[in-house]
Design a protein that fits this description.
The structure is a homotetramer. Chain A is about 50% helix and about 10% strand. By secondary structure, chain A is of the alpha+beta class. The termini of chain A are far apart. In chain A, about 55% of the residues are buried. Chains in contact: A-B, A-C, A-D, B-C, B-D, C-D. Chains A and B meet through strand 1, helix 3, helix 8 and helix 15 of A and strand 1, helix 3, helix 8 and helix 15 of B.
Chain lengths: ~400, ~400, ~400, ~400
């Protein structure tokens, strides 16, 4: 069979799957599961076009990796066919450990379990199935391969993951200002001492990338309505978990029920294959079908939250730079208790306070974006001349939010 | 509250919701349900970006309607604010009666129930809720309003529904040749004797629209792999229905179970509110979560089909212009019976033969696309000069297919 | 020096110049001249964005050639580096013999001189300069190379020239329906018996390409206002030529003056290097600067036409399927004579009658578009099943026009 | 005649000319002249697609103005039809006083003459022709109208001029990161105390706009190769001027010759109609046709520079943050003198040193970009919270360059 398949990507046009191994990985049920996990979870409530999946993102990141590798080879960087395939496999599988709704459940039923660790664990399982064909991909993913630029292409402050998700998320949300300028950035990539750097003339493109990324954070990922919806689904899952563990009947698919009923740890995942098997059957479908069932659940908190999110009847959300006053929060809870006829404890479940924050560039850590000056020096882009404001991009911006039912207004 | 909301549409940019009534309709749970029904059902197995929903399509069609109305008004066609809002409400709600997976279930569990009739029925329910605010929208939808061009904008061979779905489907699949050229076509619209016509200079754009539409049919909607996947899901639902009605336990959400267990007719829908209530809780989520459960069902046919579609392990499909020979079909069934250890009757469930067909333009019916010649005559575009091949577009193309498990090859 | 240059093309993104020879050809003054020749001549009067040049088109066609060659190589067609470079050089230079305003002057001062012959002649001159490096490119251009598919990629009914100009012209005019779907068509190319064919599944894309091309003809290239402007500039050049040859003083650049004063033949070009030298200094600049001077010329016909075209005060144009009646034409001339105070002979210069025609596909000639059926046969696309209307696309559509000053209305 | 014309803009799609006055202004020969003045002058040597004209830009800015006015009206700002038309006329004509090559000649033959003053002067002439129909447009253009937001829409740090040119220049160069996000910015406009402000949630869009604009400056407008070409054309015009004024024969069109021979001042323009008449006949055509003639001029400096720019044989250019050392400059001149056999004085003409600089946002002047906070305060965006780096955008970046013939390397 011809495995050199081509598929249509509205973002990049025709995309080719370059090798048989990559084709077989895509065909695997672990990877096909990503078709059922949306990249942006609840964002669709604000941006109705943003329904794209982890599956599509992974394919796109693989495509950008192939462009990056071609650029590097054209510039004389020696890259073997095996290294190239491994780098593409690593990026293809980098998100394979994501649970339903991408991030939301990490803060509820998968508390304490890191999706990157699960990705790694699943890659090892696949490696066993494919007789070690993923050895090098795993090294690259972990950052233990002796040529660090491969890992940086997979995971760094300017990796193919970010370039694809910014490209794709801005495309599907329609927020065109969020486009990162991936084409130009990739053309500017090069390697010095086995590390990834960009040609100096890329500085404006890097700044534009960082600013676009920040815009995407505040306009999309941390959009106030999106934040409200995400907090609601987190609260739904937490409530379902509490009720289940307290012995109440909470209908759910077998896979979801398992994780509602039992707290699992990272170690559990890695030692108990039954857990992994359940995990690999879990996707957005389980969450939404459960929420639909829970809209009829006798528990008032669970049914109110479930019905509300189905009808996009979202919590009112307010943002401010200071934390919300404790008295103010108590007042809100009292209003909820009264309006909904709930106990204080239950009413508190319908008020959510928290914090969102983002910095556009982490200039001080290990993983900086480096440029190669015309004189041959490698410097952190924040130190490169001409751009007084890249440093400023390093400052963290933080906001406090509070959400609660509109009915109390 | 400000109900003049704006949302981002990757296809059209910023789109405004023009009136409070339209805003309230969009907020209604009947309409929010469309968020959970994909426009193109199984097409995502071939075009991974094609995940857009009926919700988004309905908003887009409403937007094109507003552009069409503005063009007509600029050309001196008198249109009242009430008529304009009604036309937009009619197109907004035209698909509200769609069931899960858009069309596939019409050929299984909703056999004999017409989605347009359900749309009409739901519009009447909404009309009651909104105290008659939809009276005129319903007239327009049904084609009983005395100014037929409004109905033609909602439903005809060149309506805002088609222009939006071709625009949207070509955008999200990445099949750019499928773009219908909606902007230009809309600018060419005018009204003669209360009927919709296009200026004569639009003939090339009309031809291009018809050819693009045909391309979308064969490249997307009737793509062989999409056809294979659709036939599989139809077979899955039929099998689940048979098993349920035969008394076997077939897990499903309450809403889906209801329709698996009981054949409903158009009349049932219109007389029994409980049926409608169930229907309005049914969406793609119910189907996919059931399929996931059925992958473990004891029935071999059901579990094989369910697991296969989840893993995108699709039937091999062949197409030809002649029907497939009966002996050939029997041979296939025998191979399946042997390979899977099934009875003949069960094996026959894993072989599907059928027919797909399409004509680009129905030139002979009542509902033609008409142009206004420079001399003031209104003629069917197929009769307009200069385009020897529009007539040829009227010919129906038909293909026969057969699908079966790849394992028997 | 690094000659692996990259440039930005709004149509294709980043485009790489693949070899040093190609880079050096682009740098040559013969090729740089194409920067001063607009691809679409007078079309800018209707589509103000359509200012792109032969220079840009040639680079774009070279880019599509590189994509086509890569596709063929991926499908196992053996193509040497030398063949690949030659094919790219051939397409890069295919338009190098174009005179100012692309086509208009071919019907006036270059009457009887074929631009393709001049391209060939210039390629031979360049070949001498580059020590025979263009030997193979010239064979491919002429169609004498023993592997005809290379010539077909340069010049046939589905060549890289057409794909680029349709892409580019639709982009810069904003007529999006004119996009030919080049990406998909190129992916479908293959070679059978050294001839270019397309995979059978390309039939819908081919039809779409032919229909888009026809749309571009009638909407852009033969647009009535464009036709009017082109006829005016042709008449201007003819008048200037007559006056010059009759001994009147008609200011012009030395290069333009030469061709106004003296009729040259194909043979002259090929035997007299001085003529070629003059030709290679001629571009749109010469025409427009002369027209500006001629707006003050004492000859009434010349100054009226020149001032009019500068101010976009264009002739009224009418189109019909029948030729315009001789009496009607005489009547127009009389009105012009009266209105402008001209003799009949001069007035006749301000009335232009003619004919435009186009057929979307020449199905009967030698150069057909062929597809490879699944059964391995190569057939003319017009014979391929499923598309009743491709044959109809072969019919020629013809229109008669008449243009004259608006002042007589 | 129907003057409600529509034209195709590749950047915005279909654009409507809203009133008869605007249509008549566009038809005027003063405005048609802008068809022959490229927006970006020499930029085409780096970005071959960047051939768009002042004509197209002015139409685009008028279109954005109509979008901005519609947004403001939708938000309840009272705008009369007369004000709306005047604002559109003002932006349509804002560049009508531009000379050939947009900016380059301002630094040579139009030294000391301000193009905005000429625009104003031409607007007054048009106003006389149109019987005072431009009274209000002129007030708005000058900033004397009592509702300052109209002037701010025409000319400020976030005006429709900038939004269009950034949109258009990024489109035609292919530098997609330069897109300013005009749609969203316009939707965020509002008016407080008759001044233009943006809603607070626009802060990320404003930052993105400023960063995109800076990127366009360094990547396009001040691109080193563009700078080199611009300096060459300036030097060409200066040399031609010197030679002409020294009595040498320097062929040129009558209009260009006039300005080469005679220094004109602002006052001359405003008092001598003959000067204005000559100016309104001057465009890019005059410059390029003269440069073509000058390639054969006996003056070595003039012919070398002219032939070089025609063949895109551009000066080598170096940039640095410090000024270039005087001794280094003298050394360069000596090398030129030797290599070209020129006197020192003449050789110095082939060496150009200078300075380019840009700041992304002028935060301290009168004309700030202001946002309206949720609490109803109007503040400079640089003072708005959340964006530590907008202040940094105010810093001016400056670079020194030196250019000279590649032959001396």
């Amino acid at each position: 069979m011809n495995k050199k398949k081509i598929f249509n990507d509205p973002v990049y046009g025709f995309v080719t799957i370059p090798t048989e191994l990559l084709f077989d990985l895509i065909e695997h049920s672990y990877f096909q599961r990503l078709r059922r996990i949306q990249q942006l979870g609840l964002t669709m409530f604000v941006y109705p076009g943003a329904l794209h999946t982890r599956f599509h993102h992974a394919l796109g990141a693989m495509h950008l990796m192939s462009l990056a590798l071609r650029t590097l080879k054209d510039k004389g960087v020696a890259i073997t066919a095996r290294e190239g395939e491994a780098a593409q496999a690593a990026i293809l599988l980098h998100d394979i450990g994501h649970g339903p709704l991408s991030h939301a459940l990490e803060r509820s039923i998968f508390h304490g379990v890191d999706h990157e660790q699960i990705s790694l664990h699943l890659m090892r399982k696949l490696n066993a199935e494919f007789d070690g064909a993923l050895d090098l991909a795993i090294e690259i993913f972990q950052g233990t391969y002796h040529r660090p630029f491969f890992h940086q292409l997979v995971s760094s402050q300017l990796d193919m993951d970010r370039l694809d998700y910014l490209n794709r998320d801005s495309f599907y949300t329609g927020v065109q200002e969020g486009r990162p300028g991936a084409d130009r950035l990739i053309k500017m990539l090069t390697v010095v001492d086995e590390k990834l750097v960009l040609e100096e003339k890329a500085v404006y493109s890097i700044e534009n990338f960082l600013v676009s990324r920040r815009l995407m954070y505040w306009q999309v990922y941390l959009h106030k309505t999106v934040t409200s919806a995400e907090q609601m689904i987190i609260r739904i899952m937490q409530r379902a978990q509490e009720l289940t563990r307290a012995g109440h009947k909470v209908p759910a698919s077998p896979a979801l029920h398992f994780f509602l009923a039992k707290a699992v740890t990272q170690v559990d995942f890695e030692t108990d294959d039954a857990i992994l098997r359940r995990f690999t059957r879990l996707d957005d479908t389980d969450v939404w079908s459960a929420v639909k069932l829970w809209a009829d659940h006798p528990d008032k908190v669970l049914n109110y939250l479930s019905q509300s999110i189905l009808d996009r009847h979202l919590f009112k959300i307010s943002l401010q730079t200071e934390p919300f006053d404790a008295d103010f929060q108590i007042g809100i809870v009292e209003l909820i208790a009264e309006r909904f006829g709930l106990t204080h404890t239950d009413a508190a479940q319908l008020m959510i306070a928290g914090r969102i924050s983002n910095n556009a560039y982490d200039a001080d850590g290990q993983d900086t974006i480096d440029v190669l000056t015309k004189r041959g020096r490698v410097v952190n882009v924040a130190e490169a001349s001409d751009l007084p404001n890249i440093k400023a991009l390093g400052q963290r911006v933080e906001k406090h939010y509070i959400c609660y039912p509109k009915e109390i207004l």
